Amino acid sequence: MIIARSVPELRAASSGPVSFVPTMGALHAGHASLIRLAAADGVCTVVSDFVNPLQFGKGEDFENYPRDLAADAELAEQAGATVLFAPSVTEVYPPDFSTTIDPGPLAHELCGLHRPGHFAGVATVVVRLFGLVQPHRAIFGSKDYQQLTILRRVNQDLGLGIEIVGAPTIRDEDGLALSSRNMYLSPAERIRARAIPRALQRAAEIYAAGERDAVLLAEVSHSVLDGLTLEYLELRCSDLTNYEPDRPAVLLVAGRVGNTRLIDNIVLDPASPTQAIAQFATKEFA
Ligand code: PAF
After folding, report:
1. Pocket lining: 126 vs ligand 1, CB cutoff 6 Å
2. Residue among 43, 136, 133 nearest 81 (CA)
């Protein structure tokens, strides 16, 4: 695996069709699963490792975001990456850079309500990275469900022609979705954070038993979420339009445990109503 720090190095190291995994580093087993998926068909697999200042608000964790290039390089290489692209801020945003992507109304809902400007920052860096990496396919984790939905929209609206793949959320043994921010949690907070997968599991269980009422599905989740400061718990159609009982849906949750902001979601599909519970089948929530 080659570590490229500049655009010329990136271009020299990559060839043919490119599968792309954009990340902000602090790589964990969830990222490894994205990289393995990208590398599975044997094409050049580029992983970007860039903490994007544009997607952090004032008082958020940009300065403290975990950075460890050596550990990231080891994990990326083992998972099958061909190139790790780890540019500086000025490589991505030269001093005269002035374009911003506004992804539209969805960027101001759900997480966007609590993190103004966040999705414009995400869309801007991802489109910029697409331009630099020129992938035919890009893989994103489904834990960041709203991000994935917005990036599909951006790709379609701008006619970028990239295949956008949403990869399954990887969960720890206690059910918590893997996230680079989990490392901020103290042992006591970690125990409180388990309420999130437990809440989603409760909704998945009553959904599998036939419940389709939005209020009841949200209520059963809400009742176990007392260990965190809830930002939102919302049931929507899987395209993030308003919930309709007969269509595939997604239950999304965001909240803070101490100072750590966590998000998660579960897709509920009337065509395979028991599928969602399977995600939690082997997990220990005690
Ligand atoms: O999901 C992330 O890690 C980031 O939002 C992304 C897509 C790499 C853009 O910085």
Report:
1. yes
2. 43
